[in-house]
Amino acid sequence: MIWNKDYETVPSAMSYATEQQKEQIKKALDYAKGNVTDGYAKEDDEFIVITVEGYKCIALITSEWNPIEICERVFPFDDERIYPMQEIEMTVNFKQYRAGRDY
Q1: DSSP letters of 86-97?
Q2: Under the phi-then-psi rule, with left for phi > 0, alpha for psi from -120 to 50, and beta for the rest, what region is 21?
Q3: Backbone dihedral region for residue 98 (phi beyond 0: left; psi -120 to 50: alpha; all else: beta)
Q4: Partners of 61 in the β-ladder
Q5: Could you give the CA distance from residue 40 to residue 83 in angstroms, rounded to a whole number?
Q6: Beta strands in 1-103, from DSSP E residues, in sequence order
Q7: What is the pLDDT of residue 11?
Q8: Comparing C-alpha atoms, which of 39, 45, 40 is closest to residue 10?
Q9: Quick one: pLDDT band at residue 19, thresholds 50, 70, 90?
Q10: What is the mean pLDDT of the segment spanning 33-40?
Q11: Closest by Cα among 25, 16, 8 to 80
Q12: Residue 103 has pLDDT above 80, yes or no
C-alpha cells in the first residue's frame, strides 16, 4: 500500500506521549513485530504511527522512497488498549455532490 498521508515514527510519537500512551504504543509495537515477517529483527523507526478512522495505528514501512509504502496490516491502539490487527486499503472515488446543482 502506498501511503501519502500524515504519519510519525514510533520514536517520535513516544517522545511526547504520556506514560499511559507510551505503554499502549509499546504494546501495539510488540504486537506488530510479532505479526509481520521478521518483525523482531526490525528497528522501531521502521514502524510509523498513522491515523485510520480516528484510531492511531502502528504500521510497518515497506519502502521509504516517496511515496512511502506501508504494509496493509496495521495494529490499532488508543490510550486504553490495543485492538486486533486490521487490514487497510485506500480507494479512489468520485466526489459526491448534492442533488439539484447544474453542471
Answers
A1: EE------PPP-
A2: alpha
A3: beta
A4: 70
A5: 20
A6: 2-3, 8-9, 47-52, 55-63, 68-77, 86-87
A7: 93
A8: 45
A9: very high
A10: 94
A11: 25
A12: no
